[in-house]
Design brief:
Layout (H helix, E strand, L loop, with lengths): L2 H32 L2 H29 L4 H35 L8 H22 L6 H33 L7 H26 L3 H9 L1 H9 L6 E11 L2 E10 L5 H18 L3 E10 L9 H6 L8
Parallel strand pairs: 2-3
Antiparallel strand pairs: 1-2
Family: Belongs to the cation diffusion facilitator (CDF) transporter (TC 2.A.4) family.
Pfam families: Cation_efflux, ZT_dimer
Membrane topology: Multi-pass membrane protein
Amino acid sequence: MNNVQVQRGSKAVSVAVACDFTLALVKGAAGMFLGSLALMADSLHTAAQGVTLWKTGVEEGARSKGNRAGKRMQSYEVTMLLIPLVLITLALFMVYNRVGQLWSGSPEAPDSFTLIIVLAALLLNEAVFRYHAGRSKANSPLLQAHTRNHRTGIYSSLLVIAGAGLTLAGEYGEVPVLLYCDLAASLMVYALVIWRGLKLLREAIYKEDILVDALCEDHGMDYVETIQRVYGVITVEELKVQPLGSAQIQLEVKVSVNPLITVIEAHEIADRASRLLQQRFPQVTKIQMITAPYETGYPYKSNMDLNDNNLPTLPQ
């Protein structure tokens, strides 16, 4: 994927996240004003959708930025532990409150304008999703996350429509049992919120550091290119990346140098390479640099060595 596609996809994700959080506020306010318990629950689910999409965007941004994202990722990891806990706590509190209302007496039907609000939000979400899909590559992780979000968002909206519609039908048809449908729909939507919050919390706890993953998988060549810039380094024979902690890594490197230099000169080359790596990549906190003589005959054999054997002087 080229840079233009990445920028377009990132912009589309920003639009989708902003849309989710805006809709969450609108749904929450409308649910309170119109008396729809399911719509208020859907507002929390929409906020959870925005958090999920924002999380994926941050992780993909860390993968693309690599060495420039270390400090930000540390605060991000703490944030992604707190946000799911807040979502789960709010959902459980609202479930407790709704169960109390269930036993307190017959609930009231929401305003019919609730259905218009939900349908309008559903259409807006569909438009934003198609906008993102049209500006991103098919196998993009951001688009895949948005697809999953979009699917569960449809389920949540359908629950709200069914709950509010059946409750209104129960009020107009004088069927008392149907008056509980909006409340029941809200409980099911809160169950979706709790499920999403638990999923986010599990990923935050058990998933390896995002930045370390990115550096190990996608940015190994950056380290190799940096080492090869050092005067005296001929080739990088081995490079291993190991995580040390949050956004910190250790490098184990083996480089080849001129076989005719002294041990002290080889150590100086290794020190220069280590300093350059740590200057360019703040997350590299420990480096084990091993130097080995370059084994090819040309161009580092002396004239005396050339007279002693029949090895070719050109690389094979």
